[in-house]
Write a structure and sequence with these properties.
Blueprint lengths: L4 H12 L1 H12 L2 E9 L4 H14 L1 E7 L7 H4 L7 E5 L2 H8 L5 E5 L5 E2 L9 E5 L8 H6 L2 E4 L11 H20 L8 H14 L3 H10 L1
Parallel strand pairs: 1-2, 1-6, 2-3, 4-6, 4-7, 5-7
Length: about 220
């Protein structure tokens, strides 16, 4: 989208209608830009799809795929990827280099880690590193992480697969972040308006032509 957010919102609002506008605005206002999911070396497209769907449903905005190119089952995602910012990183070093200057801490999911998921600071921008289904996180990912954390499990099973680990992690941290912030999302002002405009643009077929007519008229 190459247009000014205010122009996009003004041009597309009449097309969307009140009910759809309210839903798009509500979802945008509930997004958590300070919670990023990082999936390293994904193997199973079904798990990948489930991880994306859980992340989008909870209100995550950005999911980064490290190493292996993103593959997911569209039958599982049911189009949720349309509302996510999906970023492909060539390796975990490139991912860390992109997130570090933005103030993110890297949290590595490691079964048996001493720090519990619920002990992490909910107000600090958090990037959760989730390893693949067979080998977990690479040694390099663990070395770059600021903290290793564990998901509290109380049964005989002491590990869960990638999609379940993602769902448990984002649900728990998103709830704690919202409670700490005292509101549904962490975007406001210009960043929120930009996201609203992007969502309007993605939702309206032929959006660019409608915006062009609005600007010309």
């Amino acid at each position: 989208m190459n247009h000014n957010p205010a122009d996009v919102i003004a041009a597309l609002s009449p097309i969307l209608g009140d009910e759809r506008l309210a839903k798009l605005d509500r979802v945008a206002a509930s997004r958590l830009a300070g919670l990023v999911v990082v999936v390293e070396n994904l193997h199973d497209p079904h798990n990948g799809g489930a991880a994306l769907r859980s992340s989008e449903a909870v209100g995550v905005l950005e999911v980064r795929i490290v190493g292996t190119p993103l593959r997911f089952s569209e039958r599982v995602t049911q189009g949720c990827e349309k509302w996510l910012d999906l970023v492909q990183d060539r390796d975990i070093d490139a991912c860390a280099a992109a997130l570090g200057p933005r103030g993110f801490r890297l949290y590595a999911a490691v079964p048996g880690a001493r720090v519990s998921l619920e002990e992490l600071d909910p107000l600090t921008p958090a990037a959760f590193l989730i390893g693949n289904e067979h080998e977990g996180l690479t040694d390099r990912a663990r070395a770059l992480a600021d903290v290793e954390f564990a998901i509290p499990l109380h049964g005989f099973s002491q590990s869960v697969n990638l999609s379940v680990a993602t769902a448990l992690t984002v649900y728990t941290h998103a709830r704690r972040r919202r409670e700490a912030l005292g509101r549904a999302g962490d975007l406001e002002g210009a960043p929120l308006d930009l996201l609203r405009a992007r969502y309007y643009h993605r939702d309206v077929r032929g959006a660019d032509a409608i915006i062009a007519r609005h600007l010309a008229g």
